Amino acid sequence: MSSSVFAAPSHGIAMHGQLKYSQGFKQFDYVNPSAPKGGKITLSYLRTFDSLNPLIVKGNPAPGLRTNLYESLMARSYDEAFSLYGLIAETIETPEDRSWVSFKIRKEAQFSDGTPLTVDDVIFSFHLLKTKGRPNHRSYYSKVVKVEKTEPRTVKFIFEKGDREMPLIMGLMPVLPKHYYEKVDFEKTSLQPPIGSGPYRITQVKGGKSLVYEKNENYWGRHLAVNQGRFNFKTVRYEIFRDVNNEFIAFKKGIIDFRYESDPSRWAQGYSFPAVKSGAVQAKTVAMKIPSGMKALVFNTRKEQFKDIRVRKALGLMFDFNWLNKTLYHGLYRRTVSYFDRSELSSYGKAATPYERSLMAKFANDIPKDIVEGQFKFHASTGSGRDRGARRSALKLLKKAGYKLEGKRLINEKTGKVFAFEMIAANKDQVKLFQSYGRSLKRLGIAVSIRMIDSAQYQQRRKDYNFDMLQMTWYASLSPGNEQDFRWNSAVGKQMGSYNFAGVESKAVDEAIVNLVSETKREHFVSAVHVLDRLLISGHYVVPLFHEEGQWVAYWNRIKHPKQHSFWGVQIDSWWFAQK
C-alpha cells in the first residue's frame, strides 16, 4: 500500500523527529510578543549593491530583501534543528516517504500592492526560478518532476525519490508576484523597488549608499503565530560601508545601532570608548547552539598548481594557528577542525560507527584510515612563527608532487616554473592574515602575491571562480541538507555562481550528500553528516582557520532584545526600539 495514505495536513513539519510547537501555538520562545512597535533601527552593510533582486546571479543585491520583502510558504523556527511552520501556507501535507508535498495557501495572503497571493503565483515562481534563478534554486527545482494546482488554494510538488528534505526546501522557496514579473524583466538588475508580500516596503534607495524599509501597516501576516514579536521596527535602514574602520567609527558615533564584531583585536581593545563605559552601548558574547561552520582559506582546485592533494597538504601544514592566534587575535579563537565543529555533527576525533562504515563501503579508499578511526589531527604548530618540523614535512610532500627547492624558489621539475599564486582579499583584516600566512609559505620558496580588490570586483571574481585562493565561510546548521549539494557537488561546481569555490569533484562526496538527505532517523543522519565531514577533511580542499565560542555583538541601549536568544544567536528581527 502506498505510504501516501499516511499523509495528513499539519501546521508544520520537522526534518527529523517531532515538532517543538504544537497546533495553535502563540509565538516562538525566543521572541517577546509584547515588544513595542515603532521606532527605527539603522544597520550597516559592508558591501555595495546595484540590484534589488537577490534571486539572480547578476549584480550585487541589497541587504535585507529576503527577510523584509520576499516571503516563503513556511517560516523557520530557530530553536529547533530544522522545523518549519505555516506562513503563506496554512497547512503542509506530505506522506511518510516525502515523495510529494502539498501546501494550502491562506485566504488572506496578499502582496504589498493589495493583490491576492495565489497558487498561480507559487507555480509561476517555480517556473521562473527553475529557469532563471540562482544555481541553488535551479538545483532544488530540478528535483521536482511535477507541480500542479490540485484545489483552488492548494499546490502540490511531486519529487524524485530519496530526498526527504525537499518538502522543507519547497516550504522555504520565495514566492514572487506573477502580475509584477510578467511585466518586469526578472533577469535585469534594477534599483526599482519590487513588490513583495513581506512586512516591509522599500521607500528609499540610494544606489550603493543606503536603503530604507518602511513597515507595511497593512501587512497581511501580522497576526500569525510565526510573526508575533517580530518585525517591530517601523523603519529599518541600511547604511553601506566599504571599509570596516569607517563602519566602526559610525557605530561609535551612534549612526549605527547594532553590529556584529568579527575582529578579535577590536573586540579585545576597541570597546572601551565612553558610550561603553557609561552603559549606553552594550558589548556581549551571545551563546550559540549551532555548528561553527567552516571559515577557511580555499584552494581553487580548478587551478593546475592546486590539483595535487600533496601540494594542498603541504600548504596546510604551514598554517601556524598558534602563532597567529597569540600574535594577531589575542588568543580569542579556537582552531576549526571540522566542517561542523562545535556540535555533535563533527566527525573529528571520533571513530566511525558501524553504520558510518556501511555508508563508506563504496568509497572506503577515499578516506584515510586515521580519519576513519578518529586519529587524524591537524598539525599543532609550535607557535614560534618558524615551525621547522612543519617546513620539513611540507617540503617532503612537495618533492613527491614534483617540486624542488632551488635556492629560495620552489620549482616545478617538469616545467621549470616557480610555484606562485595570488590571494585575493576583500578587506584589510584578510590582508593581515594573508601576509602572515604568505611569510610562512615564502619559507617553502613559494611566491605569494596578495591583492585587495573592491567589493564589486571581488564578488564577480568569486562568481566566476577567477581566483587562486580566497577566504570563505560556509555557515552550518544542525540540519545540513541540500545546501551541501550547492557547496560540494561535482556538477554544481562547474556552474558559475555556486558555493563550490574549491572546485570539489568527487563521486564519493556526491553520494555522501545523497545519503545525508535520505536519512529518516536522527542518529543515522548524524552518521551521514560524519561521512561527508570525513570526506571533505580527507580532500584537503581548504586550510581551516578558526572560530569564536559565540557571537560578538554590540548595540546602543535604544534598542532592546528578548530575554532568550535562538539557537542561532541574535535574531535582529525580534528586537525593538525602546528609547523614550
Summarize the structure in words:
With 580 residues, the protein is of the alpha+beta class. A hairpin with a 6-residue loop joins strand 5 (89-93) and strand 6 (100-105). Mean pLDDT is 94; it is low at 1-5. A four-stranded mixed β-sheet has the order 2-11-10-9, with no helix packed on it. The chain is built from 18 helices and 25 strands. It is globular.
Instruction: Figure out the total of helices.
Output: 18
Distance between the termini: 64 Å
β-strand amount: 15-25%
Q: What would CATH call the homologous superfamily of the largest domain?
A: Dipeptide-binding Protein, Domain 3
* Oligomer status: single chain
Tell me briefly what this model is.
By secondary structure, this protein is of the alpha+beta class. The protein is 27% helix and 21% strand. It starts with 11 loop residues before the first strand and ends with a strand.
